[in-house]
Design goal:
The protein is of the alpha/beta class.
């Protein structure tokens, strides 16, 4: 069996655009790509503001182009902003995540990666249970859209707590595991998975860089 190699094309997309990024990935010998959607802006003139048909058409064409190049779009990276406890902000985040799921399906990718709630959004002094509840609420509002479009949402091991003792869904691996297990007990468990980003290991140093469970 051939061993396949995949790369994140985030930096290539940012510098060269989506199509050229795919071409470069193919030229250097990649078999699969992690396609980044977070560059799609929240501005009123963005592609996402043009509606579902425009989003579907754009990413379906890109998915076909990737396939013609011999590439697999193995996953996408969606919104990197998370819930912060503001009703308007959080509702907009869910809508953009819905469009991320639509774009993911159009690309032919099976998984869309979404970051967990971080202290950069809610502040380092937020109550631990508040962060846990907000994170769960976010995924539970996004997962119905994943089911709608036939893709999975992957919670990424990501955290940025500036001090020990805060809820950090990577550095404090136990918190990440508990958050995931809570989601896996719901009706949307089949539409949920995990993205282990080993590049974020530096964020776990303040917790002693735990490796258990990984």
């Amino acid at each position: 069996m051939k061993r396949m190699a995949g790369i994140s094309i985030e930096a290539l997309q940012k510098k060269y655009g989506d199509r050229r990024a795919l071409e470069i990935a193919q030229e250097i010998g990649a078999d699969a790509v992690d396609f980044n959607l977070k560059f799609e802006p929240y501005a009123e003139d963005s592609l996402y503001a043009e509606g579902d048909e425009a989003v579907d058409a754009y990413y379906r064409e890109l998915g076909a182009y990737a396939k013609a190049l011999g590439l697999i779009v193995s996953q996408t990276h969606g919104r990197c902003r998370t819930f912060r406890g503001d009703a308007e902000w959080d509702a907009a985040t869910v809508e953009k995540c819905r469009l991320d799921c639509l774009a993911t399906a159009a690309l032919g990718a099976p998984v869309c990666v979404i970051h967990s709630v971080t202290t950069s959004a809610v502040g380092p002094d937020a109550e631990p249970q508040y962060i846990r509840d907000l994170n769960h609420s976010m995924f539970m509002q996004i997962l119905p859209h994943a089911k709608q479009y036939g893709v999975k949402i992957a919670a990424e091991t990501f955290g940025d707590s500036p001090k020990f003792g805060c809820i950090d869904f990577f550095g404090d691996l136990d918190e990440f595991v508990l958050a995931c297990r809570k989601i896996e007990k719901t009706e949307y468990r089949d539409w949920f998975t995990v993205c282990v980003d080993t590049g974020h290991s530096n964020k776990a140093m303040r917790f002693g860089n735990p490796a258990r469970g990984m």
